[in-house]
Amino acid sequence: MGEHEVALRASIARAVDALAAPLHALVPARLSGDDYIQLVEEVESLGRIIDALRLRLAGDAESRSDGPIDTFGALGHASAADGLAALAGISVASATSRIHLGRAVTPSLTITGAETPAPHHHIAAAVEDGALGIEAAGVLVRELDGVARRVSPEILDEAERGLVLLAAGTHEHPPLRVDLVRMQASVFIARIDPDGARPKEQRARRKRRLRFGVETSEGLIPVSGLLAGEVGITLKNLVDAHRRSPTFADPDAADDVDVAVDADPRTLDEKRHDALAAIVGAASRAVDAPDLGGAAPAVIVTVTAEALEEPNGFGVIDGLATPVPVASIERLMDTRGHQIATLSPAGRILSLGSVQRCFIASQRRVITARDGGCIIPGCGIPAGWCEVHHVIPHRAGGPTHVDNGVLLCWGHHQKIDSGPWRISMPGGVPHVRGPGHHEWTYVTKARRWRPPLPATG
């Protein structure tokens, strides 16, 4: 071990001893605002020095396994990444990423012992100086390596220098956040790439995927994947546009006090899910929706007549192992209707009835013209994404008639029987009571049919 390495290890040992006691005594909540900001900046500077050391060591890890002496293999590790993960207490994926970035910013030695500069020496210098964090450095390395085969070394070197200045900041402008570094680097690389943005788009399209996982014990379907950019942003915008939480002024509050009552207890993730459910429901009802096995895509539920009459009855959805309670089956029947299949004790189909209880297309059109969308105040889900709900349940004798049907989005349809909203249909016109609406309130959103407000005074 050389003199510099001995001095470094001694400095690390002193730093660990010096920081251990103050760390235990630190209570961030006691700091003033200025002290808190200053300490965050100072600790970040310290962290970047440590990160630079980590990368230098990781950058040499693979040479320890590929050389004549297998340092990690001697300890029983299968690879350099496996050994580094064990030593550092991190995942193999994190160790692999650290090794890859470390190689890009770490000098190496030739056979003769001469030192060669790091492949990305501008990035390496900024990381060593603490001017560039390893997350931003990783972004720049990936972008530059992606275009390296199509750009001359001179242009690539100049691009690296410019990107480092942009990301690390100068006296004239502050450093960029990593998300902005990623955005600026992509634009920068597209300009110097002779093929423009096309290679990156082609690589991205080859990675697109959508996967449905195995049903969980609660009956949830895991979904994962990578969407093409325009598909993902379109879906995100559609979902975000219709996940607003309705908020209402409390009419019982004093006139000079602005009090809001949140009628929607769903989390942001739950709202996104329910908006997606509305989108999927609308797509399944589309006239030109593709067939599945010669028929329109349908949710097949098996349930006995006796179970439908029991409060705790349940059925089974084809494709799912988890039983479905009667309340959920009732909502599916509201929206999609049902057919009665009569089976013999041996399982032979004896008869199949016609679709019943479902609001037909012409009924849905006139209900849409009247309601204009989900009738719950403050909900922005449009009519095309809504389901038609029997106000008086079918099991209680409620008819499948326009005077007994209202539009509800998927999320509100799920909870309409348990509150906090109640619906009535005086004269075939929807009225609701609920948070912020203590009296029956006319809620139709097709304003051309709205009756005049009563006179006050």
> How many DSSP helices?
17
Oligomer: single chain
What portion of the residues fall into strands of 2 or more residues? 5-15%
Overall 3D form: elongated
Secondary structure class reads alpha+beta
Average pLDDT score:
79
Uncertain residue segments: 245-262, 292-296, 452-457
Main sheet: strands, sense, barrel: 3 strands, antiparallel
- In whole angstroms, the N-to-C terminal distance is 93 Å
Helix content: 40-55%
What is the strand tally?
16
Strand order of the largest sheet: 7-8-9
Computed over alpha carbons, the radius of gyration is 32 Å
Keywords:
457 residues; 17 helices; three-stranded antiparallel sheet; alpha+beta
Topology:
Blueprint: H1 3-25, H2 33-59, H3 61-66, H4 71-74, H5 80-88, H6 92-105, E1 108-109, E2 115-116, H7 121-128, H8 134-147, H9 153-168, H10 178-192, H11 198-206, E3 209-212, E4 223-226, H12 229-241, E5 247-249, E6 260-262, H13 268-285, E7 301-302, H14 305-308, E8 314-317, E9 324-325, H15 326-336, E10 341-343, E11 349-352, H16 361-371, E12 387-390, E13 405-408, H17 410-415, E14 422-424, E15 431-434, E16 437-442
Antiparallel strand pairs: 1-2, 3-4, 5-6, 7-8, 8-9, 10-11, 12-13, 14-15, 15-16
Helix pairs in contact: 2-6, 5-6, 8-9, 8-10, 9-10, 12-13
